[in-house]
């Protein structure tokens, strides 16, 4: 009797909750999963073991602290660039404006990604104010301006919440104004005391990468959309022009385009033409990326069923409204990952400006190592550090894109 | 990577050191072996295609799953191996001799087998993983762009998840994927110029060296033309394929 009772009694169901259940479900679901888990786990463990061993043990991080602020602004604050005065406050003023704008974005959105970004920036800037340098190496003014980012964020939030400035359109206008103001501050104005001009050739470091990336990312999307629409248009002249532009700019390496912009473009313009190396680099990077962007958008456009546009026409929408209101929103939503991939590419491509002898964050490190004998054995530390810096920025882009996709319900319907 | 003397080895089979990775490889006995290889490959491929066609027709006629792709692959391996055995039995000796790497010489060079140089491996691994990450995002965009109803309808018809992906989702995803994918392949061919950074003299590196003697502008124009020719070829092939997968209206 007892035996049969035991036979009919079902075994308890497998644990599917808690850590063990999660592991069984996701890591060891099938024998194939289990094999993959073991292989990847071993590789990860080995990589972590040797990687952390090197980071904490053998690596000499003094090259990073020796470079310090030069990572951020290059030789902007040197005597040669900015003689007779301290210019560090100008890029820092730009940073404070960014903090305030992020605060406003937080106030307008009421939370979400904008809040995360604003808080991360404010906390990081405040933390940087307490770097263990002596006061001679990192002045009190520099530290105070870094600490000012947190109150700036709060003020931005308050302004967006309690004044009529808190609308997305006004924030966009303010952002453009702040960017232009930052560029003017960095460039300086001749004749204004305290704002001595600094040649753009002396701009450098992460600041240079970020300026180029912001210009490129803002402009390459609209230009790319225009090119993609042109490539699919029925007008033969427009179509041919767009195809030639896209294929030529996509077909040659960016580095040769930058080189040509430096050597050939000045020949075509009169002397003293206000087109410096920074704006040439920005134009080339923007055009290069917009050719890629056009192809991404084209992919999104051609995946739309023609019935969408036909239905819009049948409802009586004119052609431009069909494109702007029906086709483009769906097309762009389809290709958000490819677009963000292109933004990330663009940000990394800004390091190529070394070919026109501008000292971006990578080149400033490379130049420092080759000119300081005591650090000649430490390129590895430098490049690991640079990789981490770039990863932080590219991962933020990727994170924002994931949030945008989630918000738009990509893949949900 | 450790030095050649202290590398990880399985004596006579595998050497991993800072020179690269050496593995046993088929040693080629000149033209004879090459012809034998080609003939065997042709036999295997032709039989695979034949089996695939036959089974596909049967599947369409009878309505029962007969796994044409799987059977084709199996046929290729089995018939190829059988043909190899026949060749070996008839000629009395195998046309393929396995050459194993061995350590020798004053500088502990690896002789025989196939050696992949460490620099080349580093370049390949770097380029492949870098481009793969970008392509992964593009493919993801393509797959998420296909309406959920499509997948659900296909599963409701009883297709297995793999077949839903292969026959419903992916063909539609390709429309989003192909144009950016062409861009990525162009990027890959352009990024291969980074081989110069680890000591290979690729096109860009040779051009940089030449700028020491010739006018940089003319050399860069030649380099641009060379890359442009390469890219346009890729792009043409890609766009021809792209035209095939577009919407067709009946």
What do you see in this structure?
The complex is a heterodimer of chains A (413) and B (250). Chain A is mostly helical and 413 residues long. Chain A is built from 20 helices and one strand. In chain A, helix 12 packs across helix 15 (277-302), helix 16 runs antiparallel to helix 17 and helix 19 packs antiparallel against helix 20. Chain B has seven helices and eight strands. Helices cover 65% and strands 11% of the residues of chain B. Chain B has helices at residues 30-62, 68-91, 118-145, 148-156, 161-191, 203-210, 216-245; strands spanning 8-10, 14-17, 20-23, 25-27, 97-99, 102-104, 109-111, 114-117. In chain B, the strands form three sheets. In chain B, strands 1-2-3-8 form a four-stranded antiparallel β-sheet. In chain B, strands 4-5 form a two-stranded antiparallel ribbon. Chain B is of the alpha+beta class. In chain B, helix 3 (118-145) packs across helix 5 (161-191) and helix 5 packs antiparallel against helix 7. Chains A and B meet through helix 12, helix 13, helix 15 and helix 18 of A and helix 3, helix 5 and helix 7 of B.
Provide a brief overview of the structure.
The complex is a heterodimer of chains A (413) and B (250). Chain A has 413 residues and is mainly alpha-helical. Chain A is built from 20 helices and one strand.
